[in-house]
Design brief:
Blueprint: H1 3-23, H2 29-41, H3 44-48, H4 53-71, H5 74-79, H6 81-106, H7 112-121, H8 127-134, H9 141-171, H10 176-210, H11 216-236, H12 241-253, H13 261-301, H14 308-345, H15 347-355, H16 361-367, E1 373-374, E2 377-378, H17 381-407, H18 418-437, H19 442-465, H20 469-495, H21 501-519, H22 525-541, H23 543-548, H24 559-582, H25 589-607, H26 611-616, H27 621-643, H28 649-668, H29 675-690
Helix pairs in contact: 1-2, 1-13, 2-13, 4-11, 4-12, 4-13, 4-16, 6-7, 6-9, 6-14, 7-9, 7-16, 8-9, 9-10, 9-12, 10-11, 10-12, 11-12, 11-13, 13-17, 14-15, 14-17, 15-17, 16-17, 18-19, 18-27, 19-27, 20-21, 20-22, 20-24, 24-25, 27-28
Subcellular location: Cell membrane
GO cellular component, one term: plasma membrane
GO molecular function: potassium:proton antiporter activity; sodium:proton antiporter activity
């Protein structure tokens, strides 16, 4: 299979895993990606991928750790730097020798140096795996800072120790003193390389600015090159490329920040670019892990040389030992620095640090570097070591996924933001005053009502995001049910020829606007079924209707169409209200009341001939004008809240940032009605002239 096909399949796999994570929100996305990788590994795609550890480290891990360093809370990490250094160096070495000697005692046929190499591959905590596990959980900040800091620098310890173990395997000689000195010098030189790379980058930027050649795209490319440049330069000096990439990222985030239009544009582009890159690389990490599991699993599991139960027992024992060694090391640090009583009181923190020390793809990438031959002779135990490493890595992730939620304070619940809702309501109040007190045309009134609807949607979004996950799922399920009833009623009306294709599409777009608010948030399986699966089934069951409603007929709607749509909407609303009443024993009463009130409000708008006019006006430049006025009022309210002390300066700046983004997006929208509407209006005028 060609490279292009593999890239396309991997991109589809990452996208699909993200969709499945929304459908099954209780299932961590990294586990979905691992399972996706396992499925790919069993196909031709898996056999077509030749895993190159060095390429993996430089192309995926280096930029990810660079970004981790760039966004890390360095002052908070430095508060726990003692424990971080001990875990990143002492903890890794403790794990190397502990795991290595136990494995050698269980399987004496494997050379001790190879066993130490195995321990070195499983020594470092995987920063990507930790962040994927912990981002949904409410873990104490001090614990998270330790895990983040450890994950940034301990790869260098593991890789360097692994290289010495491999050298001992090939030469039969090993010096602990030489290994320690090499580890220290490798880390120091790597850090120096990071400093030098950032200094060179800053000097290059100064030269570009002196000749007035600033360019957002060029600056972005320079930043994207930094982790690779740091890694390769460090490798040239036989230093740690990982440390160099991390230090480069940390230094990239420091320094004086100028407030200019160019820097603001650069910041926006950089953030959005890195967000996409990080998401893609994180997905690749776990998909590759799944593919690697299939590559190393089958040869050993199907081999007659090893008992499967014996292998499974070894994997369980080594996984347990891995966590026990880490717990002992962390407990020793707490005992020595804080005494028995305080250390005992912090048992939960010690357990979180223990089970947060999960392994990831870096461990498998490291063990893949093991040579296939030793002194010209085959090394048959290599496949066995790959198998055990992969299984232990996967098992640590499973254990972390199960145990960490039990030890944490539950999942992260977004804090309620009542002040933003108050600001939105005051803006809505002023807009209503404009409608009541000013002499407005019907078009202007529709535009203001559309802006009010926009702010009401923002209130609903804030309210929904502040709910616990279970309540959010119920909220989405009820919304999905309403959308389903509405679509069924619309399709039935079209089948009975009560509306034509143009009116059908207008109502359908109205429903789509509502469904977008559901699909942008977490979907439960029921919501997914009601919104997507039923639509697919409807197309399969009624293909004729599907094509009829897409016939190229007139796109404009007249008063007769609006009257028909109003009748259909009222009929659908009655069915929705009946359905909601029947659900009072199933869902929370307050949620049902919320949706009943919302539907009745929409029915009042339709009765007053406002709902569809409010929707249609969004194609008009007048809507953009009134929307910008709404943002002006919002800024004004933010200033008032800040001056009165109702919100902090930090919160006010965050609110202003959101308004700026919304206004920028609104101004980028077409200022005129879409070409299709203009063309159809012209056609309608020509038709009238002919008649």
């Amino acid at each position: 299979m060609g490279l292009i096909e593999i890239i396309i399949i991997l991109a589809i796999a990452i996208t699909l895993s993200n969709v499945l994570a929304k459908v099954f929100p209780s299932f961590p996305i990294f586990m979905i990606q691992i399972i996706t990788g396992i499925i790919l590994g069993l196909t031709e795609v898996g056999s077509s991928i030749n895993f190159e550890p060095e390429v993996f480290l430089v192309m995926i891990i280096a930029p990810l750790l660079f970004r981790e360093g760039e966004t890390a809370d360095i002052p908070s990490i430095l508060k726990h730097f003692g424990l971080i250094l001990l875990l990143a160096f002492g903890g890794v070495l403790f794990t190397i020798f502990g795991l290595g000697y136990v494995l050698h005692s269980i399987l004496p046929a494997i050379p001790i140096a190879a066993c130490l190499a195995f321990g070195a591959s499983l020594g470092p905590t995987d920063a990507v795996a930790v962040s994927s596990l912990a981002k949904r959980l409410n873990i104490p900040e001090s614990v998270m800072h330790v895990l983040e800091g450890e994950g940034l620098i301990n790869d260098a310890t593991g890789v360097t120790a692994f290289q010495f173990a491999v050298a001992a395997l090939l030469t039969g000689q090993f010096s602990a003193a030489d290994a320690s000195i090499s580890l220290l010098t490798s880390s120091i030189i790597g850090a120096v390389v990071g400093f030098v790379v950032v200094w060179i980058k800053n000097e290059a930027i100064k030269i570009i600015e002196r000749i007035s050649a600033q360019d957002v795209s060029a600056y972005l490319l320079i930043e994207l090159i930094l982790p690779f440049a740091a890694y390769f330069i460090a490798e040239v000096f036989h230093a740690s490329g990982i440390i160099a990439a991390v230090v480069t990222g940390v230094l990239q985030a420091t320094g004086f920040r100028r407030v200019t239009l160019f820097d603001a544009q650069l910041s926006n582009v950089t953030e959005s670019s890195w967000s996409t890159i990080s998401f893609t690389l994180n997905g690749l990490v776990f998909i590759f892990l799944g593919i690697e599991l299939t590559q190393v699993f089958s040869p050993i599991w199907n081999s007659r040389n090893y008992s499967n139960m014996h292998l499974f027992s070894i994997v369980l024992l080594l996984t347990l030992l891995l966590f026990v060694l880490r717990f002992l090391f962390v407990s020793a640090f707490y005992l020595l620095t804080q005494g028995w009583k305080k250390s005992h009181a912090q048992l939960r923190d010690r357990l979180l640090l223990t089970f947060g020390g999960v392994k990831g793809t870096v461990s498998i990438a490291t063990i893949f570097i093991l040579p296939t031959t030793i002194n010209g002779m085959d090394f048959p135990e290599r496949s066995l070591l790959l198998f055990i490493t992969a299984c232990v890595t996967f098992l640590t992730l499973v254990v972390g996924m199960i145990v960490l939620p039990l030890l944490s304070d539950g999942e992260v619940v977004p804090p309620t933001d009542p002040k933003s809702m108050l600001i939105f309501r005051e803006v809505i109040s002023e807009l209503y005053d404009d409608i009541e007190n000013q002499d407005l045309s019907e078009k202007e009134r529709f535009a203001l009502q559309a802006v009010i609807a926009n702010y009401q949607n923002r209130i609903q979004l804030v309210f929904n995001n502040s709910m616990p996950e279970s309540a959010q799922q119920e909220f989405q399920e009820i919304q999905a049910l309403i959308i389903s009833v509405e679509r069924d009623g619309l399709d039935e009306s079209f089948r009975r020829h009560q509306i034509d294709s143009g009116a059908y599409r207008l109502y359908s777009r109205f429903i789509s606007n509502v469904s977008e608010s559901v699909t942008k948030q977490m979907l439960s399986l029921l919501s997914f079924w009601l919104i997507f699966v039923r639509r697919i089934i409807r197309v399969i069951m009624h293909p004729k209707m599907f094509w009829q409603r897409r016939e190229k007929r007139r796109e404009t709607v007249d008063n007769e169409d609006i009257t028909s749509l109003r009748k259909i909407f009222m009929r659908n609303s009655e069915a929705i209200l009946d359905s909601l009443e029947n659900l009072r024993d199933v869902y929370d009463e307050e949620l049902i009341d919320f949706f009943v009130d919302e539907r009745k409000n929409l029915m009042r708008q339709v009765s007053g001939h406002g709902l569809f006019g409010t929707y249609l006006i969004q194609q008009d430049p007048l809507y953009t004008k009134e929307l910008v006025r709404g943002y002006y009022l919002e800024r004004k309210k933010i200033d008032e809240f800040e001056v009165n002390g109702d919100i902090s300066n930090y919160a006010a700046n965050n609110y202003r940032h959101q308004v700026n983004q919304l206004e920028s997006y609104a101004m980028q929208q077409p200022a005129d009605p879409s070409i299709r509407f203009v063309i159809n209006r012209q056609r309608k005028k020509k038709k009238k002239l002919k008649d």
